[in-house]
Amino acid sequence: MNIQKMMKQAAKMQEELTAALATKTVDVSVGGGNVTVTANGLGDILAIKISKQVVDPEDVEMLEDLVLTGVKQAIEKGKGLAQSEMGRMTAGLGLPPGLM
């Protein structure tokens, strides 16, 4: 296999992976399920749901911390999904590390 053909194949796989990851979602709940964050495999935050029970005008900082924690965890979980999917798609290709 020549290098140009291999690079075209890698670019096509990257495009397919990006399209697939845009449609896959992960959910993270924090604060006993009071805040739920949904992200896709690209790390884009798609939704944040906040339970009314956790909304306290006297303690906004706690809600901010819960949202921030949920967002960080959702992004990390999305990255993990991306790595898993990339490993699945490139398994057996014999590509050098870092090529994809």
Summarize the structure.
The protein contains two helices and three strands.
Notable traits:
alpha+beta; Ybab, Chain: A; 52% helix; three-stranded antiparallel beta sheet; 100 residues; 2 helices
CATH class of one domain: Alpha Beta
What is the alpha-carbon Rg in Å? 18 Å
Q: What's the rounded overall pLDDT mean?
A: 88
- SSE series: HEEEH
CATH topology-level name of one domain: Ybab, Chain: A
**CATH superfamily (homologous) name of one domain:** Nucleoid-associated protein YbaB-like domain
Strand content: 15-25%
Structural class: alpha+beta
CATH architecture verdict of one domain: 2-Layer Sandwich
- The counted number of beta strands is 3
Amino- and carboxy-terminal Cα gap: 17 Å
Shape: rod-shaped
Biggest sheet, spatial arrangement of strands: 1-2-3
Largest sheet properties: 3 strands, antiparallel
The multimeric state of the shown protein is single chain
Low-pLDDT parts are: none
Helix content: 40-55%
